[in-house]
Amino acid sequence: MRKIAMLVALVATVGAGVAQAQTDGPPQGRDGRGRGAGGPGGIGMLLRGITLTDAQKATLETLRQSDREAMEQNREQNQALFEQIRTARQSGDTATANRLMREQRAKMDAQRDKHAAAVRAILSAEQQVQFDKNVAELKEREAKFPGGRGRGPRPPGSPPPARG
């Protein structure tokens, strides 16, 4: 269940992150006080240190809107998939649940890469250098903490995290 929630959160972050894309400092939430959808792992991190022109901002907004519409179109399909995963887990069929999760993760990774390439394409050559540096830093961070958000893998023999 926790992995499902993480997948949903990742999809929402990638889609909504573009709204927070123009930053010179840390991404801000709606109230301007903290991290918003452009937080760690979102598009805001990839645009860190890049100042966008008004035309680039408009193009990012169009891209964000397109991504949002695509997510809406796929909502029922994704809900059905998550229900299949939940059913498989409840029936004890973890192999099927894990396979479905891996397939969904691959789709989400492909969508994220496609989105990043679309964002990169609107940048100048100078901005692309910084963007590529930010991408490399993000990939390094993901390799260091494969569990996401800095948690890393559990030590062997340790109990699973409590579900909340």
Mean pLDDT: 74
Overall 3D geometry?
A: elongated
Low-confidence stretches: 7-41
Report the C-alpha radius of gyration, rounded. 17 Å
* End-to-end C-alpha gap: 10 Å
Q: Assembly type of the shown chains?
A: single chain
Helix content: 55-70%
Per DSSP, the total helix count is 5
**What structural category do the secondary elements indicate?**
mainly alpha
* Overall strand count: 0
Instruction: Please indicate the percent range of residues in DSSP E strands (runs of 2 or more).
Output: under 5%
Taken in chain order, the helices and strands follow as HHHHH
Please give the domain count.
1
Please outline the major beta sheet.
none
